[in-house]
Automatic annotation (TrEMBL):
Comp. bias intervals (Pro residues): 99-110
InterPro entries membership: Copine, Copine_C
Single biological process term from Gene Ontology: cellular response to calcium ion
Pfam families on file: Copine (PF07002)
Gene Ontology molecular function terms on file: calcium-dependent phospholipid binding
GO CC terms, sorted: plasma membrane
Spans annotated as Disordered: 93-116
Signal peptide: none
Lineage top rank: taxon: Eukaryota
Name of the protein this chain belongs to: Copine-8 isoform X1
Domain Copine C-terminal per the UniProt entry, residue ranges: 1-98
Length: 116
């Protein structure tokens, strides 16, 4: 666990996210700790620069009524829920701003529309 924490702390300055899906009946206390939603993880006195881990236990998404499509959609939604904030956190800490939006597409043969 110590080496895993150290790897996450080291990776927290990189443009990446780590997704962990817990499978089976085990207790996932260690994975919840790695998730870092409650307390930012640290290793050797260094704290993770940002939260890059998302953990979800698969068993929380098993639909007992048999609606597996809905279950998997909920799982996908929750697994990916933190990724946008993690990405924006990386960009903000480095002062990277989005480029201006490109002009709207005009199909060939259509006159360009200009605003006055």
């Amino acid at each position: 666990m110590a080496r895993t924490k150290e790897s996450i702390v080291n990776a927290s300055c990189l443009p990446m996210s780590i997704i962990i899906v817990g499978v089976g009946p085990a207790e996932f206390d260690a994975m919840i700790e790695l998730d870092g939603d409650e307390v930012r993880i640290s290793s050797r006195g260094r704290y993770a620069e940002r939260d890059i881990v998302q953990f979800v236990p698969f068993r929380d998404y098993i639909d007992r009524t048999g609606n597996h499509i809905l279950s998997m959609a909920r799982l996908a939604k929750d697994v990916l829920a933190e990724i946008p904030d993690q990405f924006l956190s990386y960009m903000r800490t480095r002062g990277i701003k989005p480029s201006p939006a490109p002009p709207p597409y005009t199909p060939p043969g259509q006159p360009l529309q200009t605003q006055i």
